[in-house]
Amino acid sequence: MNRSEMMAAVKAEMPERRWTHTLGVMETSIILAERFGGDPERAERAAILHDVAKYWPTARMETMIKEHGLPEELLRYDKELWHAPVGAFVAERDYGVSDAEILDAIRYHTSGRERMTLMDKIVCLADYMEPGRDFPGVKHIRELAEHSLNRALLAGFDSTIMYLLQQGRRIFPLTIAARNDLILHLQ
Ligand code: DGI
Ligand code: FE
Ligand code: FE
Ligand code: FE
Predict the structure, then answer these.
(1) pTM of the prediction?
(2) Boundaries of each HD domain copy (predicted)?
């Protein structure tokens, strides 16, 4: 599927405001890829698709996780996490994406993971700091992102983890692993 067909199909899967967010993640992924030596075209491709499953009914995502061998551990954590691995599956099956790095960037854009690739980091950080985002700390994340992909992403995970702690919610282990690993590799 070419870029504009993909954009039209993804747009049809979501409300207007989420499509605006997606456009912001696309634009920010390109900027971050250019800044940090990534591949802007492939990062943008991942950004187009990253939230493709965001508005799927929970039951549909749950069925897909069970039927297609996606990690069932996810079902014991926040539903907000599910659209990422489901999105990667849909990107491959329905959008014909075969680039493993693009699929991983979609798969891990919410949770993060240990040893994130450059593309994982770009898409995850773009998701945190695209121009439409407004949450406490987003300005600091954008400032850090002027110079350090790792420090900015770490600040993003910190803010998510603090938010989940405040809410008394469970934290998916990959998010903890992603944060620990970023700290270990801060130069
Ligand atoms: O899909 P978006 O809204 O653009 O952003 P996202 O895919 O990063 O989803 C973020 C939401 O996921 C945010 O509201 C926090 C929630 N969430 C719930 N449990 C976890 C989690 N996020 C992470 N990173 N780790 C969790 O364990
Ligand atoms: Fe998302
Ligand atoms: Fe995110
Ligand atoms: Fe998003």
Answers:
(1) 0.97
(2) 18-132
